[in-house]
## 1
Amino acid sequence: MQLPLQITFHNMTPSEAIEAKIRQCAAKLERFYNRIISCRVIVDAPHRHQRNGKQYHVRIDLTVPNAELVVNRYPPKHQNYEDMYVAIRDAFDAAKRELQDYARLRRHETKTHELPPYGRIGKLFPEEGYGFIETADGDEVYFHKNSLCNGDFEQLQLGNEVRFAYSQGNKGPQASTVRLLGKHHLIG
């Protein structure tokens, strides 16, 4: 880290053991992304429930090039962070995941989900049970009525918009699945 680690205790007395644990966890973060500019950790004991005991909140602010990553670990409804070390572990695990995601984004390794190819019904042969889809680049792709996932083949009309999945057939490209698009249909 370019700037020294900052640890702040709020509503509780500082502890050398807890501070040592935070320093150890913060040092491990640099394994996942070695260009961390600064790290600020705030440990808070905001709740003083008589029945449940103290619950701890850990916040980690990481400054990295062109971004600031913030991890807040409030006790979830189904789990009480009565153990300070569990709260710290969970917060730093979340910070590690944030850093890994940020590093992937910086390396342009994020997943992209391409939409299936798009086209319009160009030719229909209802008696034979097949048709052709005209793609945006002018190709024709064969499809059989059984490949239609939503809608009724008998109700198809020329010009209907579709998304489809390519496969290679005996006589060239064909659509293995065809999804009818429209105002009442979902892409998927």
## 2
Amino acid sequence: MASYYAVIHKEGASDYGVSFPDFPGCISAGSTLEEAEVMAKEALDFHVDGMKEDGEEIPVPNLDFKGIYEEYSKDEDFHSLMLINIPEKVKRVRVNISVPEQDLKFIDTVADKYGMDRSAFLVLAAKKIGTGACEL
């Protein structure tokens, strides 16, 4: 897992802005610090995926807190630094399964209710059953 510093900016009543010293052009924002962190993780993950697809080299994280702080804290809109972790990607495998149509509709309805896609829902259900968190 790699970790990169995110610079949090806040100007007056605006949202919290986020930028990454190691990834110029990768920016995000959120109305709260919590939302800014979630959005920053998504933005960085998306940015890194794009770089990988384009065959670009992913920078080694600059973890010099003091240096980054000294550079960005001079800006009047500087708020704070946040460390964002990028987990290693897991290889995904496409599978073809047969499911009765009414069951597939039910799976999709329940998955959608919890903001998940079909694949994520089926994996979660299998893990819960496999760990004994719920029974058949």
## 3
Amino acid sequence: MNKCEIITIANQKGGVGKTTTAVNLSASLAFKGKKVLLIDVDPQSNATTSLGVHRDEVEFYLYHVLTGSKKISQIIRKTSIDSLFLAPSNIGLVGFEKEYYNKKIQGREEILKKRVSEIRDDYDFIILDSPPALGPLTINALTASDSVLIPIQCEFFALEGLAQLLSTIKFLKEQINPNLNIKGFLPTMYASQNNLAKQVIYDLTQHFDKYMFKDDNKQNLIIPRNIKLAESPSFGKPILLYDIRSNGSIAYQNLAEAILQQGL
């Protein structure tokens, strides 16, 4: 099997499309024949419910893996896409943050990395959906990853906080995870009639063009504001299974293709 790539979807700003990207990128990669594991690292567990798993029905989830009572292989579930698998979350995952600050725990930034290493060779891609904060769970996710994909909402204050995230990534790369790289910036919720959205794309391109995903025509890949994309989680389905022809579905399929072409 080819080397597995582990990608964290991260941005400490909430509501930027992290979970939407984690779920639909994972589904799109699986649709293209890759074996994919989506790990829900967010206590809100929206990635879990977006794949049709009710969070209250999950007996064992990522908390049990991080605290050592279960192996990650014991919590992984099948999904409605044959080659897409899920390591679910639950609100109880917030308990890990309290235990994280126990000074007796050695290498606490690398707990998730150690757990994931046990099953890494079983997958082509492992996607981690992180919470909207630069706390212990996000730090663990980034330490476990090869790269980080940063969704950025095409609205006012879009770039606010980005410097802090980039500083955290730089620190982790220097101190803990030298393999961590920026996979790319992904503009989300783009409305073409909105001049502010166009300005955000312009600013991103001016400062971070080398980190922008491109399509076959070398145009920036952008996730549009799309009703079907917003509706699909309430049906417990990725957009591919809800409306494969929608603009949102096509955008995430194009993103998956760009990532496959990037390689490692």
